[in-house]
Design a protein that fits this description.
Shape of chain A: globular
Largest sheet of chain A: 4 strands, antiparallel
Number of strands of chain A: 4
Low-confidence stretches of chain B: none
Strand content of chain A: 5-15%
Radius of gyration of chain A: 27 Å
Number of helices of chain B: 8
Oligomer: heterodimer
Strand content of chain B: 15-25%
Distance between the termini of chain A: 49 Å
Helix content of chain B: 25-40%
Low-confidence stretches of chain A: 1-6, 172-177
Helix content of chain A: 25-40%
Shape of chain B: globular
Chain lengths: ~375, ~290
């Protein structure tokens, strides 16, 4: 057989892309899914892609989901690669989630509190029974009855706890945002020691599944921190920027966020009295699972700062931050399918050489034993 | 390309990368952290090399991209197309014609010149990562030139196997100071790095590091006096062009143990054949 060098990489790529386009479209007899359908009816997927893609744009996230056939990590990747080309004008002012009209507000530490508990559009108490009624083209929906109380003031649970000094203050142990500009992982490389600003950014962009697993591990004894869900809020909050040339803040739009404040037990240290400590999670859209996992991992990563033993994966800042980004992870795991035959060839020769050496030394030993 | 800057990256980003490159050239073999950008190609597929290439490319450059030594492997095709599309630069498969060569896993057989730059795609810039996973620790080791860990690893290899068992990504000491990963090139290519006329740049996008070897710099593969460094190659000559001094790929030709060894550097092989060299396989074809 004559060896024919493998040629035609370009043609193969073109053909693969054409095939992909057809696969994405699916059966042409079925109407194509529209971006407004994805945006409106697959909202949780849009939220996740915006969060991990680090770009708040529901329409572009919907486009990315359509383009990636619903592969949400691929969609987040598309969004990130677009985001990186955008100019950055500056930082917004800190979001004021206390002023945010909450569509959902839950506290697991107080039965009732000012502003009340609001379940909002949650799956929490649904029975997970397949609803065959949804299989119909246009199932009926019901209007919720919204209480007037929702418009009242809604102080943070953390502020209530802080009044008694039971909760660590914001500015303790480097927990508060530093007065300088916060770090930005999309502009500067991750370096250690990583401040909490950078850690929280990494977690907010991190993979939901990875954070969920790590957060879960802290509940099962790998770096336990005795968490209580102090407060979870979801709602639409105003983003403001303050251009230096204006000298006052201007409203640039509203975004939906989910915020989770964990309250964690803390026995105190040489310098700090026994008190509760904080773990914080903030995610684009309605992404409660991720916000909660993020808060658990944030608190776990503060172990060293609080003088606790660092023994578990979730407490190892370097481990968590280097492996939480699913765009990095998927790229590097999947790069194994690129050709490696040069390296493999050198390994082949190496193993053959080592086997020869092994056989030779065994033969020598056998001969010595025989003598 | 409409809507994008020349060579995709905006000029501010290029400037940031060029600064990192200058620092890297000034401290040969030292890993310089840089603000690696999200690229439209996946991490692990050459994003570091692409960012370096994008930052040094000018409109008059001629670009060659290889993967495993070949110009026609799919990822090399994809990256070459990316620059043809975003920068509109001329591309070539001929090593001698290129001004910039981006590579994954090989150094071309044709010696490079002073007016050429070779850009390596690097998956893992930290040569010590298998021995010490924490980058906080390895940075400290580099700062102190504390490379005992690596020497112990090599010594243990010899004690256990009678030889050093690293066949690719074989660690090198640059300019007598920094331990450096040469990227996963076969150890066969390591000697080409030593005193190379061309500027060698290394980009690791996912790990966000850049490093460099200026022209005519000493690059030594780690070894011991009584166990000198040995490059590994398949025994024999290229079946197509008969070359005896090029790195060979092993091609499986049937399911009965049939093997054919051919040049991994496809341009080198093609040029030799064009010049009339012929290997055993070529001769057999001619007879048939």
């Amino acid at each position: 057989m004559a060896y024919v060098a493998v040629k035609g990489g370009e043609r193969a790529i073109d053909n693969a892309h054409a095939w992909l386009d057809g696969e994405r479209r699916g059966n042409p007899a079925t109407p194509a899914v529209s971006l407004s359908q994805i945006e409106g009816q697959l909202g949780r997927a849009v939220d996740r892609v915006m969060g991990e893609g680090s770009l708040y744009d529901r329409t572009l996230a919907a486009l990315a989901i359509k383009q990636s056939q619903g592969d949400l990590i691929e969609a987040a990747f598309l969004l990130r690669a677009y985001r990186t080309t955008l100019p950055r004008f500056g930082y917004s002012r800190p979001l004021d989630t206390a002023e945010m009209p909450a569509q959902r507000r839950i506290s697991a530490v107080f039965k009732d509190l000012p502003g009340g508990q609001i379940l909002g559009p949650t799956y929490d108490y649904t029975h997970r029974l397949l609803d065959f009624g949804l299989a119909e083209a246009d199932p009926a929906t019901r209007e919720p009855a919204l209480a007037a109380a929702m418009d009242g003031p809604m102080p943070r649970v953390h502020d209530i706890l802080s009044q008694e000094g039971l909760l660590e203050p914001d500015d303790q142990n480097g927990s508060a945002p530093s007065p300088a500009e916060p770090g930005d992982l999309t502009r500067q490389p991750l370096l250690f020691p990583a401040g909490r600003d950078v850690r929280l950014q990494a977690l907010a962009r991190g993979d939901e599944g990875f954070l969920l697993g790590l957060g879960y591990s802290t509940q099962r004894g790998y770096g336990g921190s005795h968490p209580f869900a102090g407060e979870i809020r979801m709602g639409e909050v105003t983003v403001e920027i303050e251009p230096p040339e204006l000298g006052f803040a201007i409203d640039i739009g509203d975004i939906v966020v989910t915020e989770c404040q964990m309250v964690n037990q803390f026995k105190g240290s040489k310098t700090a009295p026994p008190q509760f400590t904080r773990g914080y999670g903030l995610v684009f859209g309605f992404s409660e699972r991720k916000a909660m996992a993020m808060a658990l991992v944030d608190r776990a990563m503060r172990a060293a700062e609080l003088g606790e033993d660092v023994t578990a994966p979730a407490q190892d800042i370097e481990f968590v931050l280097y492996h939480s980004d699913n765009i990095e992870a998927t790229g590097f795991v999947e790069h194994l399918k690129l050709p490696h035959y040069v390296d493999f060839q050198s390994e082949l020769q190496n193993v053959r050489r080592m086997r020869a050496e092994h056989a030779r030394s065994h033969a020598e030993h056998a001969q010595e034993a025989a003598e | 390309m409409k809507g994008y800057n020349f060579a995709y990256l905006d000029e501010q980003t290029k400037r940031m990368i060029r600064r990192a490159l200058l620092k890297a050239v000034a401290i040969p073999g030292h890993q310089v952290p840089f603000g690696s950008r999200e690229m439209p190609l996946p991490y692990g597929w050459g994003t570091g090399g692409i960012q370096v290439t994008a930052s040094i490319l000018g409109p008059d450059d001629v670009l060659k991209v290889i993967d495993q030594g070949a110009d026609d492997t799919t990822n090399a095709v994809s990256i070459r197309r990316f620059f043809a599309r975003t920068a509109g630069v001329a591309t070539t498969t001929h090593t001698a014609e290129a001004t910039v060569i981006q590579t994954r896993h090989r150094i071309p057989e044709t010696p490079l010149r002073e007016d050429q730059i070779i850009v390596y795609q690097v998956p893992q810039p930290e040569p010590l990562f298998r021995l010490e996973p924490s980058r906080v620790e390895t940075r400290r080791m580099h700062a102190l030139a504390d490379y005992g860990l690596m020497h112990v690893k090599l010594y243990e290899d010899i004690a256990r196997h009678g030889q050093i068992s690293i066949s690719y990504d074989y660690p090198v000491l640059v300019n007598g100071r920094y331990l450096m990963s040469p990227s996963p090139i076969p150890a066969f290519d390591n000697p080409k790095m030593d005193g190379m006329a061309a500027l060698q740049l290394f980009g690791a996008g996912r790990e966000k590091r850049i490093y460099a070897i200026p022209p005519w710099t000493q690059v030594r593969s780690l070894d011991f006096d009584d166990h000198p460094f040995r490059a590994i190659n398949a025994p024999g000559n290229c079946g197509l062009c008969g070359a005896s001094d090029s790195y060979l790929d092993e091609v499986v030709t049937d399911d009965k143990g049939g093997r054919l060894f051919v040049c991994s550097d496809t341009d080198h092989c093609a040029e030799r054949r064009a010049a009339g060299h012929i290997g055993a396989e070529g001769l057999r074809d001619a007879v048939e």
